[in-house]
Amino acid sequence: MTVNSIRLEQHFEQMSEIGKLGETGTNRPTLSPSEKQAFELASSWMQAAGMTTRIDNFGNLIGRLEGTKPELPVLMMGSHLDSQPYGGRFDGVAGVLCAIEAVTTIVEKGIKPERTIEVVSFADEEGWRFNKGLFGSRGILGRLEEGELDRADKDGITRRQALIDFGCDPKKFDDSLYPPGSIHCFLELHIEQGPVLDLAHKPIGVVSGISGPLWWTVKLKGMAGHAGSVPMPIRQDALVGAAEIILALRQIATQIPDAPTVGTVGTMNVFPASRNVIPEEVTFTVDLRDIDLSRRNMYEAQLREQIEAICGKHHLTYSITEDWNSEPRYCADWLKQIIHAQCNNLNLDAPELMSGPFHDAMALSYATDYAMIFVRCKDGISHNPLEFASYKDLALGAEVLYGTVLEVLKHEPYNL
């Protein structure tokens, strides 16, 4: 193995101490003091590898290994260091630390690439603090939407203020943009966050594409009343309507048993939230994903029909706000070929599989060719302190990434 597996393991152990939750969990919100601490640690490793580092105005940490021909579009790789509030040690972190290890190995081998390499820890991939993710990766491409800076977290802190507190200047976003054509390709290593590789006893997988996520915020409005006196037949109970919609979503998403469609309601707020008051207002999120856009569109239409019917039955009004909508994005064939070749060199039988979760690579796919390497995680558990990937598997992933980078540096897509 060319990469230093012991050093990589030490880096994971050190990073896991920042925002540590219990024995194995992580709570490292975006644009927080703990993420800044994580950036400082990762930056020290980048600098030790000969990279210059900076935090741009979107809150991204960027390590840059200057090529001998800096005018060439950059080879970019990375992931994120922010976590879910009840997260694990490897989600996102694997992509950043393995990328740092790949660059460190390149420098230690005395390789001087013509093309500049950048390793990025993107800001707010997770999206839970401000209810919209992939902020940093969309930001550098000029793909932010109106009103994103005004989104507030549960404490009332806006994203704009959080960026300023982090040392960024939202008024200077233009200084941090990547012009069209300035990124040669993007590579992201990530734990699978699903059970396919674990069940197949395969440490490494090659991603074929990323499912298209549709995110809604749904608000139902009924009528509050005394829980002891309003007869059941005339109640306008918003929570009952929400419960039926949740069940309808599950039925819609599972109507084709073997399809990879998934539907989730992950958060819910009930007003006035008193045990003896009929719920008047319920706000909840919907997450619908599929690799097949036509099927997802069909299911979206079915869900809208169900919401209309259920609210009519219970005499509720409703609103649907679309927070995120992306079609499935497929990896570049030429990059997949390189990754498969690297796996073959290591005698790894690496299957191709789709990604249900979205990643920063999805945002980059709108600007450049991309590919992803998946690393097996135990029982497919993620977004949970029980999330686990072995250091042996992670080192294998870093080795595949290292070899892939070397090949990308040697070839252009039209030469393959």
UniProtKB/TrEMBL annotation:
Domain of life: Bacteria
Chain positions recorded as Zn(2+) 2 binding sites: 91, 126, 383
Domain Peptidase M20 dimerisation: 210-313
InterPro entries: Amidase_Cbmase, Bact_exopeptidase_dim_dom, Peptidase_M20, Peptidase_M20_dimer
CDD domains: M20_bAS
Obligatory cofactor(s): Zn(2+)
Annotated cofactor note: Binds 2 Zn(2+) ions per subunit.
Keywords assigned by UniProt, alphabetized: Hydrolase, Metal-binding, Zinc
Annotated binding of Zn(2+) 1, by residue: 80, 91, 190
Family (UniProt): Belongs to the peptidase M20 family.
Annotated NCBIfam families: hydantase (TIGR01879), PRK09290.1-5 (NF006771)
Protein name: Zn-dependent hydrolase
Organism annotation: Segetibacter aerophilus
